[in-house]
Design brief:
This protein has helices spanning about 15-30, 60-70, 125-130, 145-155, 160, 165-175, 185-190, 200-205, 220-244, and strands at about 5-10, 35-40, 50-55, 80, 85-90, 100-105, 135-140, 180-185, 190-195, 215. The chain is an alpha/beta fold. It has a 7-stranded mixed β-sheet with strand order 3-2-1-4-7-6-8, covered by helices on one side. The protein has a 3-stranded mixed β-sheet with strand order 5-10-9. Strand 1, helix 1 and strand 2 form a beta-alpha-beta unit. The relative contact order is 0.16.
Length: about 240
């Protein structure tokens, strides 16, 4: 099944990053997809979306994200919820049409318990142990899972309301078997990049290497924007070559 509804969360009036993301979705899908922007009452609307869904949200970013995800009704459609620092490079095709589909973390790293503030839970722990599932992309058919995760998050110490709370609450819910789910393929459904690919690398991952469907970019906001700017030019060039 090819996903035909995408939702992303973004607050703040610098919309450079989500604007590039929406442009990439339109390049791949044209008008054959519905794009939702989930945000507060102050953030400007990103050009190219179909609908902006606004709510009064917490000032804590992790709480706000789950509030935005849980306060909206998508008419029981399968919706791809993603980070905005992403790039769609192929139509999003899922093979297990379950109500919830998650991405397992492939690469684990040692957590820094002192960043961005002190997290005693992270001392001598790896990301794979604490947060075995990514929140950068997941597919859900209704908002029930997000309402559940929000309740879990609100019961946690405030530091998780500011950072890491989405993945930590998701890990808790999975560990306690609070819902059923199937898995997406992280090599296909969310390829994480730390550097801009070369033109050859981009064309390989888009057209030959399992036909990657979604890219996500790691780094500080300025680095992400630069990587996304360069990568969407690679996408435009690749589409032009194929169409010719």
């Amino acid at each position: 099944m090819i996903i035909k509804c995408v939702a992303f969360f973004w607050v703040g009036n610098n919309i450079d990053i989500p604007s590039i993301y929406v442009k990439s979705i339109r390049l791949i899908y044209g008008d054959n997809i519905i794009i939702f922007q989930l945000t507060d009452h102050n953030t400007v609307e990103v050009e190219g979306i179909d609908k902006v869904l606004r709510n009064k949200l917490s000032k804590n970013i992790m709480v706000a994200r789950l509030e935005a995800y849980s306060m909206n009704n998508f008419n029981n459609e399968h919706v791809l919820f993603t980070d905005a620092d992403s790039l769609m490079i192929n139509k999003y095709n899922i093979f297990n049409v379950d109500d919830i589909m998650l991405l397992p973390r492939l690469h684990s790293f040692k957590m820094n318990p002192n960043f961005p503030e002190y997290y005693p839970e992270f001392v001598d722990k790896n990301s794979g142990d604490l947060m075995p599932y990514l929140f950068g992309a997941l597919v859900a058919r209704n908002s029930n899972i997000f309402e559940m995760l929000l309740k879990i998050l609100l019961s946690m110490p405030d530091r998780f309301h500011r950072w890491y709370g989405d993945q930590i609450s998701l890990a808790f819910a999975v560990k306690n078997s609070l819902f059923k789910f199937s898995l997406l393929d992280p090599d296909v459904h969310l390829r994480i990049l730390s550097n801009t690919p070369t033109e050859k690398e981009f064309n390989t991952i888009r057209n030959f290497s399992n036909k990657v469907q979604l890219l996500s970019f790691k780094g500080q906001p300025l680095k992400k924007k630069i990587m996304m700017d360069l990568s969407i030019k690679l996408l435009e060039n690749n589409l032009l070559e194929i169409n010719n």
